[in-house]
Amino acid sequence: MAATQVGWIGLGSMGIGMSKNLQKYLSSVSAPPLIYTNRTLSRGEPLDALGAVSAQTVGDVAKKSEIIFSCVSNDAVLQQVADEIIASGSVSGKVYVDCSTVHPDTSVAVAKKISEAGAEFVAEELGANASTKAPVFGAAPMAEAGKLIFVTAGPATATAKIAPYLSGVMGRSVIDMGAEVSKSSLLKIAGNICVVSFMEVISEAHVFAEKTGLGSAILEQMLGDMFGPVVESYSKRLTTGAYAPAPDGKAGFDVALAIKDARHALNCAEAAGTKLEVSQVALKNMEKAQSLVPDRPLDSSSMYGTIRSEAGLDFFTDLCKKRDST
Questions:
Q1: How many C-alpha atoms does 139 have within 13 Å on its Cβ side?
Q2: pLDDT per residue over 15-41, tens digit each?
Q3: Helices 75-87, 104-119: crossing angle, 10 deg rounding
Q4: Mean pLDDT calculated for residue range 267-279
Q5: DSSP assignment string, 246-282
Q6: Chain-centre distance for alpha carbon 91
């Protein structure tokens, strides 16, 4: 494993933290440094400082790497990345791991592309080429801390090869979904249904607390005591103003990506003959937040601002306004 060349594609809010932890691990075991690329290469400066090596294109990463990770923003970008990997030359003997949240149909289509490209060179039953799907649970701070939960699906030969880079390196645990790549995407979407629903309900509760005079502080204490640190952390995204970052700030998880994820969930639910009514409400409130505040970054929890506005409160809390004024 020490001689294996690993590559990385995509340095968004999740990818940068994940790849930094991966490079630290590679350095600790005297493995070749991570080769990475990103649309904006300057995003990789923290990786450079850790000893990683930049590449100009996806094709450059693919040519030089035996295991290729990607974490990109949406389905269209993932399809493009897969096409560029295939166009780079033979993918025989390579493992391609995607950590993005995309529609299950996209996962299946990309896996098929990669497998078919390799099958032209080496018989699949030899395990010489494979693609695997490994979406993650957790926000950017968890990626930075190496505390993500990985959900893997794909050929056993591929998941075995990537196992050393997951638990204890970029994540704290791995959920194995077997060989069917769509299953990992479905589990990630199910998790997103829970997260967006939590944020919608917690936002409603905070507005209720403010309007009735109960107060957000005591509500947040109850949420932590009653439901634990995860729910309390969602509450803090509201009470610390993270739901609406400063004009020159950056969202922990951009609302546009959350909207994409919610639409995937609703699409999958409709295809399965069921409904996601809370997700539908949360989607409406996230979309309205974008229309209310179109000229600045917004977090996935920005439905809080919409609910505040509809209750006659300012979209921005006093804490946000004080922060922005300084």
A1: 17
A2: 999 999 999 999 999 999 999 999 999
A3: 0
A4: 97
A5: -TT---SSBHHHHHHHHHHHHHHHHHHT---HHHHHH
A6: 25
- In tens, the pLDDT along 41-88 reads 999 999 999 999 999 999 999 999 999 999 998 999 999 999 999 999
Residue in 185, 196, 194, 195 with CA at minimum distance from that of residue 103: 185
d(CA 25, CA 33): 10
3-state class percentages of the chain: helix first, strand second, coil last, to nearest 5:
55, 10, 30
Query: pLDDT-derived band of residue 128, with 50, 70 and 90 as boundaries?
Result: very low
Burial class from Cβ neighbours inside 10 Å (0-12, 13-18, 19+) for residue 245 reads buried
Tell me the residue type at 137: F
Q: Which of 112, 109, 35, 116 is nearest to 69 (CA)?
A: 35
Token pair listed for 22: 């991966």
List, by residue number, the catalytic residues: 188
Q: For the chain, how big is the Rg over CA atoms in Å?
A: 21
Q: Where are the alpha helices (DSSP H) in 132-254?
A: 140-145, 156-162, 181-212, 216-227, 229-239
- Rounded to whole angstroms, the Cα distance separating 90 from 74 reads 25
Closest CA to 72 of 33, 113, 100, 43: 100
Listed in sequence order, the residues at least 6 apart from 154 whose beta carbon sits closer than 8 Å to its beta carbon are: 111, 130, 131, 132, 133, 134, 179, 181
Q: Which two tokens stand for residue 100?
A: 């993005």
Which pTM does this prediction carry?
A: 0.80
250-258: average pLDDT: 92
